[in-house]
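quick one, two chains, predict together pls
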Amino acid sequence: MALSYDSLNENVKKCQYAVRGELYLRASELQKEGKKIIFTNVGNPHALGQKPLTFPRQVVALCQAPFLLDDPNVGMLFPADAIARAKHYLSLTSGGLGAYSDSRGLPGVRKEVAEFIERRDGYPSDPELIFLTDGASKGVMQILNCVIRGDGDGILVPVPQYPLYSATISLLGGSLVPYYLDESENWGLDVDNLRQSVAQARSQGITVKAMVIINPGNPTGQCLSEANLREILKFCYNEKLVLLGDEVYQQNIYQDERPFISSKKVLMDMGSPFSKEVQLVSFHTVSKGYWGECGQRGGYFEMTNIPPRVVEEIYKVASIALSPNVSAQIFMGLMVSPPKPGDISYDQFARESKGILESLRRRARIMTDGFNSCKNVVCNFTEGAMYSFPQIRLPPGAIQAAKQAGKVPDVFYCLKLLEATGISTVPGSGFGQKEGVFHLRTTILPAEEEMPEIMDSFKKFNDEFMTQYDNNFGYSRM
Amino acid sequence: MALSYDSLNENVKKCQYAVRGELYLRASELQKEGKKIIFTNVGNPHALGQKPLTFPRQVVALCQAPFLLDDPNVGMLFPADAIARAKHYLSLTSGGLGAYSDSRGLPGVRKEVAEFIERRDGYPSDPELIFLTDGASKGVMQILNCVIRGDGDGILVPVPQYPLYSATISLLGGSLVPYYLDESENWGLDVDNLRQSVAQARSQGITVKAMVIINPGNPTGQCLSEANLREILKFCYNEKLVLLGDEVYQQNIYQDERPFISSKKVLMDMGSPFSKEVQLVSFHTVSKGYWGECGQRGGYFEMTNIPPRVVEEIYKVASIALSPNVSAQIFMGLMVSPPKPGDISYDQFARESKGILESLRRRARIMTDGFNSCKNVVCNFTEGAMYSFPQIRLPPGAIQAAKQAGKVPDVFYCLKLLEATGISTVPGSGFGQKEGVFHLRTTILPAEEEMPEIMDSFKKFNDEFMTQYDNNFGYSRM
């Protein structure tokens, strides 16, 4: 048989993507059997009840149904600024949402993205170096595909990491070079640690070509400081690495000490020679922030200091799949140029987005506190992004029981949690963690009013689990 | 520099995608300079003025703006059946269009696709073996990624072919094994020719693993007969090849002698052992047909006789990019279950779709006749799909001039055509052709009323070109 398991591309078999792995598949089965599942395996806000922002949906609905713009009754269902914006975006297309755009995305939307970046960072941005993508993941895959030539090429990836990176590197046949984030330092990034990782990879004959940072962190939730970003960029300069800045959670910040600062801004602030030489590709999306428009599949990447000939090659490869979907390109345009004060829809838009962000901030707190109220659980505060990544201290009895069940201990724990409570998480082993230490990742996205009950249900399960597998647990709690 | 042209993945550099290649780039430049360009380089109907079908756009607009469903005025802008369908599709999602779906697509839409296939072929279809994709191209790339392990793995591809195949095979580091379609037999497929191609590849140590057919043909426009499909399937059975059936133009048929018949139906008709053993993956899309919803990026593939463990691996890889965009999944649902007689929107839908198909049929005729009215041009009739692929007989003077300009002769011709007329085509060399024979591909999509003028403009250019480069041309015409 041509397409048998044995004859499959080995890189396909090797790659692992735990976010939709064993736990997700079991949760889907249980859901089919009628059990109520709380899907916190993936940052998918609308699936957990978050309502879409009204204004962008009005605009895209009108773009999908342009004939409504000629209907005298259109004003009964749509505000005038949504109508105007729909006309604006349609004018940027060459045939509406049904026509392929340029493979880099609509020039007019890329211009709006560049203007957004300029406002955000205070430095110029060139639309020709911005490509729109079907979600940020597709952009990351495109760039890694250009970088990786084979298993002699290494990519520095944080551990714990979002498994898009490990899976894509496996799929492309490259080598993942891990650098460890320090849990005891609130998942901080230590540049000495980076140096060791690179030295070790080189001693194994690997050419380290790129470094990934996820800021704010996924699954770890930390926000990188400006000083830390400078160190990283200097490191990339010295080591001649292209920095891939996964900044998809830049709107999701839940503390005031370290606001989001983009890698691009820090790089430009550093001035010559860094600002002229360090290669940077940064990624953004409509899936996260207070938008959460995951199902639309919209994203972009911006390239800095990438030579024109390489940009052309990236364009060529993008063109094989013709174009990113056009309605998500319009969502991207709207995300980077939302209603302004004075616009008809401004108040509603501001109220909706503020409501979502403030609730996420409260949920981050409820969840961290809930985890930390369990004596065998330690959890850093979610400074940003959408995840909580508690460490679960498992007793030898549980590790033994997992072994007997043929499971990794944290997978064993998460499966039991799922069966008992319907909470669908991802075991820490799917993201990478230090030997003998166990975590799980959950999103902070369940509805705020359901959060206390979910945390109670978690605590009840955890205590029972511990009582079952740790002879000393019940006693020492008193 | 980490990301320099020299250090790029060689497979990226090697791949070529002429549909958005030199001609397209030059056309885009000319457009920027203010020249009127007729983009016939890619099958992109809405870009050339085709209007979207009203009913599906109404349904998707409502799905994008679900709050309209609670508005008492919704009935003033939307018919009741569109409202009902929007509610139906929203009920199939888990959080509307903003939530990621399962990575294979929404189960409810996959069920509708399976029902469509059952009605079309008269054989059962299993939704679990249907994956929705961001356009058919992405599906083809996913499958080839699983099949190709390295340059020792060969894929049989028709020549001329749609360059998605050659580009993807290059990108994945595989080997393209060409088989030639016979222009003098209306681009027929000769199985003896296939056998020779496979034998030759094997003598070079290549393991031939898969065969691609494009039916109706792109760029060649031919429709495969049932007898021909049986031969192909038998050949795949004997040679243990997985057949990739690119059937994206199945609704685009412009003659009555050979209606579209799916590879799946022919395979099932053949019975055991073929129907139980031949591996088949067939592809479809919302981009073509009379829909032409290219910019939405929606497609599916159906797998037949692919082992469950392989299906799981394909699912795993699909999950890395989380999910295809959800609004295009709904377009796919609508395409496979359009309004029925008796529905409020049926008459309009039927009128619109019939209008498009009948006009395409007339345009196919106008274009073929137009090309054949030039004495140095020979063109098979476009039986199906959306393209005309005339052979242009270039005189030695033109070939010499092209050489001096450093261009392939058909590229030279197409560039001159573009500069003179604004007609943006793709040179035959982008699809593959026999040595010393030259073609171009154009779509049959320009508006019907503009077609005579476009063909006149082509003829005028061609005659002038020939007069310039062929000393005998003017005389022999008299």
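Chain A touches chain B through 99 residues (CB under 8 Å).
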